[in-house]
Amino acid sequence: MISKPLFKSSLSSKPAAITIRLLMSVLGGYGVASLSCVLLSQTLPLEQVDAILVATMLSFAVFGTVVIRVFSVRSLRQVIVEPLMLSTALYLLTVMES
């Protein structure tokens, strides 16, 4: 016999899940995009002005990719963990580069 939980998790409701996805897409996307912009501008073998321009243009694609990924994943745990882990990795790479 399969027992059902007495209380539903508040995170499993549709409005809460959509709110979490929206916040993580905006905040996580911004974090990943800005950190990737910094890392790319430091590592691209171009003049400083050109590297910054190219990194900024590529960061728009990174932001869009993170937003699409956040809304395509089924698990809310992945929605929260993936942008945070990616931001952490990019931050560590940026700190080690400078």
Question: What this model shows, in words?
Answer:
The chain has 98 residues and is mainly alpha-helical. The chain is 79% helix and 0% strand. The protein is built from 3 helices and no strands. The protein is elongated and about 65 Å long. The N and C termini lie far apart (59 Å). The mean pLDDT is 90.
Using brief descriptors, characterize the structure shown.
single chain, 98 residues, mainly alpha, 0% strand
Give the total of beta strands.
Answer: 0
Main sheet properties:
none
- In percent, how helical is the residue content? over 70%
Overall body shape: elongated
Q: How many distinct helices?
A: 3
Radius of gyration: 18 Å
Average pLDDT over all residues: 90
Structural class: mainly alpha
Intertermini distance:
59 Å
Order of helices and strands: HHH
As a percent range, the share of strand residues is under 5%
Oligomer: single chain
Low-confidence stretches: none
